[in-house]
Design a protein that fits this description.
single chain; mainly beta; 6-stranded mixed β-sheet; 4-stranded antiparallel β-sheet; 10 strands; globular
């Protein structure tokens, strides 16, 4: 059974940083590209960052380019999202999932709130 457990969120001031983690189990992690998504209040869920199976290729939504970095540790079955220079518009619940056209069951997400 697939489990995705996101953690690392919290309340941070504008300009601050957070590092999110997503621990995966129930599937062969190294065989899947992974994606971070986010969902702000009253908005659709959107993809934020993508990483290939090996970690050698990444891609980001324009609004986070240069500020966020996605990475993964296949030995730990974990994908990370380093978020720097956070802005109030980054406030959302952040989720991870596989990077293909289908999705695994969603985890509970981790809340990121950027506010002074």
């Amino acid at each position: 059974q697939v489990h995705l457990v996101e953690s690392g969120g919290g309340l941070v001031q504008p300009g601050g940083s957070l590092r999110l983690s997503c621990a995966a189990s129930g599937f062969t992690f190294s065989r899947y590209a992974m994606t971070w998504y986010r969902q702000a209040p009253a908005k659709e869920r959107e993809w934020v960052a993508f990483i290939s199976r090996s970690g050698g290729s990444t891609n980001y939504v324009d609004s986070v380019k240069g500020r966020f970095t996605i990475s993964r540790d296949n030995a730990k079955n974990t994908v990370y999202l380093q978020m720097n220079s956070l802005k109030p518009e980054d406030t959302a619940v952040y989720y991870c999932n596989q990077g293909g056209t289908t999705t695994f069951p969603w985890g509970q997400g981790t809340q990121v709130t950027v506010s002074s």
